[in-house]
Write a structure and sequence with these properties.
about 450 residues, alpha/beta, Rossmann fold, GMP Synthetase, Chain A, domain 3, 3-stranded mixed sheet, 15 helices, 12 strands, about 40% helix, globular, GTPase Era, mitochondrial, GTP-binding, ribosomal small subunit binding
């Protein structure tokens, strides 16, 4: 009896200290964090776990997201795996997906969360991801192969000189089984209509199933406007059926609000343009006229697309509803042979992953055109004595005054970039990574 009273006393004291933290987490609507927090403090059969609903019978899948296999940091091993025959089951299914959207719509963020591992660079600036590497998701008998399809931005003179190449670019969409269209609903001019190049891809390939994904809904203050946004971008039709019809007054009011606030968005983008937060000197993108990017004389601007098969609303940066989207994509897979071995998660080489991650950090911390003009040179890439990956890279810059800018006071900035990039690389390769960066002036 004495032992029982002591156990009850311990549980009561522990609950008194734990309860405030649980209340805070409940207010933030984060039940999974409550379970994890409780599981860290108490063994599997404790009373406190039962009170919080974390019983020993609860499957691991309920609280954990399945992790993708690690990428080998050995290029030869990665190349051998890519050449390896797929280890597909008897009734294998496959789906090839193109992820398209305006710059900064969240294509890389969504790709990373679908994969369950960060393998693609993410930043707030345009042209962070410049390759069309594939991400591979393999579960049970189904394999999803996704590709970020970057919009083709060109001037009118380029249009006339390279019209055959441009037509071939859009015809390549036929290689995919489905198209995910990402729209950033946090920016008014982006949610008011589909990007011209997105509409062009869809209209030239109407036979391919397309899915609308409204991203960054966490940044949208008025969640009720999601219905109006959906109606605009789908022309009120989803999967061939009338999806939604809002009142004329509310629809008119939203249009007026969008029109007045678009001026604020453009003014903000002009400020960002002057500060260098979204500008790539190698790009034709104009921050002052975002809706006119990629316009051609042959294609007038369209607003929506009436042939979307489904609509999803999510926040890719937090992973909300991404799992639901993945489950839906799994259902679209058709019987067919896998394209890759089940251990393959990306077609990128280890060096490409490293370069992209470092480039992401440079874009985030350096202003204006500076990060776009940096050339990375690999001096050392080898396995250390304890099995860790040792990387030494030199960052070559075209201007001498950029050297001090990148290094920072007392070397703080370059050390921070190396530390953050190293952590991301550890997540990709699942091993310890020692990354050293040096900066040199390229004469």
């Amino acid at each position: 009896m004495l032992y029982f009273l002591q156990d009850i006393k311990f549980v009561f004291v522990t609950f008194i200290f734990l309860f405030p933290a649980c209340v805070i987490l409940l207010r933030k609507q984060e039940p999974l964090k409550i379970r994890t927090f409780a599981a860290c403090l108490h063994e599997k059969d404790s009373v406190i776990r039962s009170l919080l609903g974390v019983g020993s019978e609860q499957p691991a899948e309920a609280t954990l997201t399945p992790q993708a296999p690690a990428v080998s940091f050995n290029k030869a091993d990665q190349d051998d795996l890519l050449r390896h025959a797929p280890d597909q089951p008897e009734n294998s299914r496959v789906l090839k997906i193109a992820i398209i959207g305006a710059p900064n719509a969240g294509k890389s963020t969504l790709s990373n969360h679908l994969l369950g591992r960060k393998l693609f660079p993410v930043s707030s600036k345009v042209h962070t991801t410049r390759c069309q590497a594939k991400g591979i998701i393999t579960e049970d008998d189904t394999q999803l192969v996704s590709t970020q399809w970057h919009l083709f931005v060109y001037s009118s003179s380029y249009w006339y000189r390279n019209i055959n190449h441009i037509h071939g670019y859009y015809n390549d969409i036929l290689l995919f089984s489905a198209v995910l269209v990402l729209v950033d609903v946090s920016v008014k001019w982006m949610r008011s209509s589909l990007h011209t190049e997105v509409h062009k891809c869809l209209s030239q390939n109407p036979s391919i199933p397309s899915i609308l994904v409204l991203n960054k809904v966490d940044l949208l203050r008025d969640k009720g406007s999601l219905l109006e946004i959906t109606e605009t971008l789908t022309e009120g039709i989803v999967n061939g059926k009338k999806a939604y019809s809002g009142s004329k007054n509310s629809h008119k009011k939203n249009k007026q609000e969008d029109a007045t606030s678009m001026k604020e968005d453009k003014a903000q983008m002009r400020t960002e343009h002057s500060e260098g937060s979204i500008t790539d000197p190698a790009s034709d993108v104009s921050a002052d006229h975002p809706t006119k990017v990629g316009l051609s004389p042959r294609y007038p601007q369209k607003v929506g697309w009436a042939h979307f098969q489904e609509v999803f609303m999510l926040s890719a940066i937090y992973g909300e509803e991404v799992e639901t989207l993945k489950r839906y994509l799994m259902t679209l897979a058709k019987p067919g042979e896998w394209l890759f071995h089940s251990d393959v998660v990306t077609t990128q080489s280890p060096e490409e992953i490293c370069d992209n991650i470092i480039r992401e950090k440079l874009l985030e911390y350096l202003p204006q055109e500076v990060p776009y003009n940096i050339t990375q040179v690999t001096n050392l890439w080898q396995e250390g004595s304890a099995g860790e990956l040792v990387i030494m890279k030199t960052l070559l810059v075209p201007k001498e005054n950029h050297v001090k800018l990148i290094i920072g006071a007392g070397g703080q900035l370059i050390n921070r970039i190396a530390q953050e990039a190293g952590r991301d690389l550890m997540n990709a390769f699942l091993c310890d990574v020692r990354l050293r960066l040096t900066v040199k002036f390229r004469k």
